[in-house]
């Protein structure tokens, strides 16, 4: 059975007290995640170790929001994926559109970061997505193909521990999610594009959607055949809402798929 994924991207929010309250809130509503759907939270770097502690033995995984493309060296201000691993991280988001937009990250850097994350033993959550202008001018597939090829140019599909996230920039933080039909169409496009390199890998690869997911729209998005879960921003900061989204995700797993 292919696992489902729910990943919370906390962005530059939180502090020691609110992080603790958030994890306690999630645990109060969901004493144990279901093994058919993994739950991951991605705090800001300084809180990784706190989250390692808070999530120990809970079945909740921890990830970072970014990682250097180098494992060590004279790179002031950067964070090695090896450090993330040592502080309890198992995942790292790579190429989030806010990093592309505000930190000038490009496709090539995203590819190198993905490879460094894999080399350090992390699972990269590689983000791709078009802007509103790119969609309106009919360039969505051109952009997605370019981003995807850049990332997978560095990665051998044999690695297998990779998650791809489709995150249209116009849907992030806007409250307006992409429609389930758009999401399905783009996930299908991404999967087909990867199948050109490796058909079996493409079939196994989890492709999750991010952009204004909330409990109210989760089931319609997660029910689409090529959607394997979600990358959640603002709704991940509210324990009740995040767990409600998780429960919607569980609903989309056919009953005959035992844990
Ligand atoms: P959002 O963010 O859920 O607040 O739209 C998603 C993301 O940035 O990953």
Structure commentary:
The protein has 259 residues and is of the alpha/beta class. It has one domain: TIM Barrel (Alpha-Beta Barrel). It has 11 helices and 8 strands. The protein has helices spanning 16-29, 48-55, 81-86, 97-102, 107-119, 132-136, 140-152, 180-197, 199-204, 215-222, 239-251, and strands spanning 4-9, 37-42, 60-64, 91-94, 123-128, 163-166, 207-210, 229-232. Strands 1-2-3-4-5-6-7-8 form an 8-stranded parallel beta barrel, surrounded by 6 helices. Strand 2 (37-42), helix 2 (48-55) and strand 3 (60-64) form a beta-alpha-beta unit. The longest helix has 18 residues, at 180-197. It is globular, with a radius of gyration of 17 Å. The protein starts with a strand and ends in an 8-residue tail after the last helix. 2-phosphoglycolic acid (PGA) is lined by residues 9, 167, 172-173, 210-213, 231-235.
Architecture blueprint of SSEs:
Elements: E1 4-9, H1 16-29, E2 37-42, H2 48-55, E3 60-64, H3 81-86, E4 91-94, H4 97-102, H5 107-119, E5 123-128, H6 132-136, H7 140-152, E6 163-166, H8 180-197, H9 199-204, E7 207-210, H10 215-222, E8 229-232, H11 239-251
Parallel strand pairs: 1-2, 1-8, 2-3, 3-4, 4-5, 5-6, 6-7, 7-8
The structure holds 2-phosphoglycolic acid (PGA).
2-phosphoglycolic acid is lined by residues 9, 167, 172-173, 210-213, 231-235.
């Amino acid at each position: 059975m292919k696992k489902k994924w729910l990943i919370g991207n906390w962005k530059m929010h939180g502090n020691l007290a609110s992080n603790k309250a958030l994890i306690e809130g999630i645990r109060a509503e969901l004493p144990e995640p279901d093994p058919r759907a993994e739950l991951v939270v991605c705090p800001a770097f300084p809180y990784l170790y706190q989250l390692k502690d808070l999530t120990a033995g809970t079945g909740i995984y921890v990830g970072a929001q970014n990682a250097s493309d180098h494992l060590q060296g004279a790179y002031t201000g950067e964070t090695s994926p090896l450090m993330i691993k040592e502080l309890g991280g198992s995942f790292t988001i790579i190429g989030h559109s806010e990093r592309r937009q505000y930190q000038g990250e490009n496709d090539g850097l995203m590819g190198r970061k993905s490879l460094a994350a894999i080399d350090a033993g992390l699972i990269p959550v590689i983000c791709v997505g078009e802007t509103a202008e790119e969609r309106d001018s009919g360039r969505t597939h051109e952009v997605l193909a370019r981003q995807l090829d850049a990332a997978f140019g560095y990665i051998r599909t044999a690695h297998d521990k990779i998650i791809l996230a489709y995150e249209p920039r116009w849907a992030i933080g806007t409250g307006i999610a992409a429609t389930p039909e758009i999401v399905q169409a783009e996930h299908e496009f991404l999967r087909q594009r990867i199948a050109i390199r490796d058909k079996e890998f493409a079939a196994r690869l989890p492709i999750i959607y991010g952009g204004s997911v909330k409990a109210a729209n989760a089931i319609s998005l997660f029910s689409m055949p090529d959607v394997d879960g979600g990358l959640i921003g603002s709704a991940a900061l509210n324990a009740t809402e995040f767990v409600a989204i998780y429960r919607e995700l569980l609903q989309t797993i056919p009953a005959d798929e035992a844990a």
